[in-house]
Amino acid sequence: MVKIMLVDDEPIEREGISLMLSKNRSNFEVVAEAQNGKEAVERALTSRPDLIFMDIKMPEFDGIEAIRKIVPELPNTKFIMVSAYDTFEYAREAMKFGIKEYLLKPSKVIEVLEAFDRTVEEIESEKKRVTETKQVNRRLERVHSLIERDFIVSLIMDHVHEFDQGEWDEWLGLELEHKKGFAAVFSFESDKLHPDREEKSRWYRILKQVLHEQSRPSCFIGPLTGFQVPVLVLFTEHEKEDDEIRQDFVRVILHQVQKKIEECRLYAGVGMVVSNVNHFSNSYKEAIYALELVLSHRSATYLVYNERLKQKRKELIPFEVEKELVEAVKKGDMQKGLQMFESYFQSVQQAADFQVKLVQKALEDFFIVLTRSMKELGFDGHIQVGLGQLETTMQIKEVARSQLINITEQLGEWRANGIRALLLQAKEYIDSNYHKAISLEQVAQEIGLSSYYLSKLFKERFQVTFMEYLKNARMQKAIELLLGGNMPLKEIALNVGYKDPNYFSTAFKKEIGVSPREYRNKYHK
Predict the structure, then answer these.
(1) Which pairing describes strands 302-304 and 78-83: parallel, antiparallel, or unpaired?
(2) pTM assigned to the model
(3) From the record, what ranges are coiled-coil (predicted)?
(4) In the beta sheet, which residues pair with residue 185?
């Protein structure tokens, strides 16, 4: 429905236009009328019409002056000029504001209707364009958010991604090479025992909003997993010390979020500043450690990792040994796994000062970490976490060692059979669906692995990356179609998964060395 305003100092003229339209058109509504230029401006700003029939000669000030005042406030409103004076000067003034329709009094019905139809078509076309632009922008915002999360996760997990740093820079609008940064991990604690998904989503939205509004540095926000949100903060400032930047950042964010959320509390751990964004995973581990200290002591709402904590962490938690042990188990490497377990157990004993309860708690925590890693890998076998009632550290060691052997054997068997089958399934899926817009994430979901491990294991098994294999499959099929008949190049592009024939030609030439047309001319008999 088009909102119309009629402006003329003669009531009969306004009635005449209204009558012509109402008898022949139904897609409009008269929302306001005015009898002079001053009234026209006031009522236009109040009723915000889509289209104004504007007389030129009127009291107070004329139609041209009224338009001059309305257009800056309502730039999307269209005008049809109505005048008894057929002078070029008026038409020229109207054209300055982009007005294309000019009716002479007395206007014929057909002239009014044609001018109305042309203008309405323009209005609807612009509205459609605005709606489509908004939809595209919303989609781009969602895509950017997904890319941002993937970027964070890839850094946390040292994920080898198909994107290189230049592509990340392009997607994220940054030059990461010249940025310093640190990780912060925020954790929500609710008064409710089991807050629902909708409530947690609201907390997440508030945190994201505050991070984007309040922080001067660039923030990249990871997904809400459980109750925790990882954040990468980048900056190039030099007027403050690194410690001061981190302190100011976390204080402001916690304060602003807590003002908007009353039913839960927000805590944070902050890692040290790294000069290379590729070392972000180190800062993330430091942030996790700082957060764990906050949550275990509750004397503060945040903790910023520093050199003193770094030394304490080295003394108490053998992170690197634990990481190597987990990796050995994941690979099914029994020998290295048992060697690393010896080192790990000794470190744990020393850190716990040989106290039985502390040693047992540390080992049970390790099996929780191991369980998470196995699930990320796609292994769904049962892993026992508890060690039972034990009285000595030697008993703990033997029970833990036995469990570790059992898990490593299960995983080794699974890798030999289950993984091989899953990777062949992934390969078959690519071979059957190369003509579609498939992605690593889509195939991973199809076979039940995380995209990170599919990417890693696919390369290990087939000696090519997922993207390389997909590209090769498409190129081989393209060659078959080029040599097997006279199918148009555009059709071949669509049949091998490329919507844009030009992009297909570029990719083909880059891979094969000649364009598709040249290849066909050279080899097609």
Answers:
(1) unpaired
(2) 0.39
(3) 113-143
(4) 230, 269
